[in-house]
Specification:
Layout: H1 3-24, H2 30-50, H3 56-79, H4 85-104
Helix pairs in contact: 1-2, 1-3, 3-4
Length: 107
């Protein structure tokens, strides 16, 4: 499997565990806590595997960026967090930055 595919999967799982934190209620709810912990572990394992073939700075930045992007968007949908024009602008800038990192990477 491509290092980039592993990285995208890791980023999506990062979104999953970040959103999962909200459902754990401070890790007081068993099943959401277990699913969140599993997503954290698998996300980091996939990041480590992706970093074998990608520069770590690029891999880490994209991993965090996918997680942040997904968390902002899902937070808006699931938790009715505000998605103001300013937030949309910065999400767009994040997407531009992630795309730039992808296309300027040596791997």
């Amino acid at each position: 499997m491509s290092h980039w595919v592993l990285l995208v999967l890791a980023g999506l799982l990062e979104t999953g565990w970040a959103i999962g934190l909200k459902y754990t209620d401070g890790f007081t709810r068993l099943w959401p806590s277990l699913f969140t912990a599993a997503a954290i572990v698998v996300s980091m394992l996939l990041l480590a595997m992706a970093a074998r073939g990608l520069p770590i700075g690029t891999a880490y930045a994209i991993w965090v960026g996918i997680g942040a992007l997904g968390t902002v968007l899902l937070g808006s949908v699931l938790f009715h967090e505000p998605l103001t024009p300013a937030r949309l602008l910065f999400v767009l800038l994040l997407v531009v930055a992630l795309t730039g990192l992808k296309f300027t990477s040596q791997a």
